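Entry:
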Amino acid sequence: MSPHVVVDTESGLAPWRQVHDQLTRLIGSGALPVGTRLPAVRRFANDLGLAPGTIARAYRELEQAGLVRTGRARGTVVAEGVTPDPRSALTDLAREYTAAARALGVDAATAAAAVHAAYDSATDLT
């Protein structure tokens, strides 16, 4: 079963980056625990309607960050020693939000104001 990853080709953010960022959040949150095997590159690419090279790049970047390990026999698995990092998740989310705001033609001040308004109006942030 593939992890729940959604790629929006209209977002302005490269598909490999979207896959990378979503997997980073899933790993960092514990939704993909240590030892979890990620789908094979070709299968995951097919599931998402992407080129295998797109998934391969996301996996390479995850491996360079120490989040996954790849071996011939085991495939790509979530690495040991991964601890949640909320700053990393926030950076990834901010990158996605920024791409979406730019695609809408919104300037940085307007985008930041929208974040502040949403944050202030949220009643349950936990």
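Strands lie at 68-71, 75-78.
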